[in-house]
Amino acid sequence: MRVMPGPAVRPTSDRVREAIFSALGPLGRVRVLDLFAGSGALGLEALSRGAASCTFVESDFRVAGVLRENIVSLDFATATTVLHTDYRSALRTLLFKEERFDLLFVDPPYKMLAQVEEAAATALPRLLGSGGLVVVEGPAAAESTLALPVVFRRRYGTTLVTIYVEESDRGEHSAVPGDV
Known about the structure:
This protein is globular. It has a single domain (14-165), classed as Rossmann fold, CATH 3.40.50.150. α3 (61-73) links the parallel β2 and β3. The protein is 32% helix and 25% strand. By secondary structure, it is α/β, with parallel strands linked by helices. Strands 3-2-1-4-5-7-6 form a seven-stranded mixed beta sheet, sandwiched between helices.
């Protein structure tokens, strides 16, 4: 998989990506939203593990081009959509289209984490299906602040991974193992 060289992309490390997918367990035919896609590593990994589809959001034109190349090279073109826009516009578009997802990856530039969580918080109830999961990757020094139940939280060096679950109307939630 290609990654755009330079500071435009900070790919999730192999160790962190492995830990995330180990915590998520079997994915089945879920619909995925990769909000800060970069090279597409998280969304493409989800597709390789059986996800039904992935919508990638990437604002940088050059990075989106590399992402599209990665999608084609892994033969996932029919299961993907790439939105070349910023995350706020993408959220508005997805809400307008009444799109729903089962799994959402939020891995913004670390300095943007608080503002991204604030913007995403209002959209989550309409974007996520009941029992849907939100995986937030941020700096170890910052605590993610989404107002959802935490089912997994662990530090990996300078990275903090937190997995949240959107509670269902019946009070059930996804069976993600956790070290909260």
